[in-house]
Amino acid sequence: MDQITINSIKIEQAELLNRLMIDATLSENDTKIGLCMLHEMLLKMKENDNIQDVITD
Fold this sequence. Notes:
Blueprint: H1 3-21, H2 28-56
């Protein structure tokens, strides 16, 4: 991904978080962005767990 695309995604994520904080109505696109963010966080948590398992073994 190029830097412009990455920055665009980050802006969309920030706008979603802003709407969540002010309890605004969410669009279908907001829901999709939120699900993608959740997926990314879960993958990072899983990776961290795997790293911890390797360290403790």
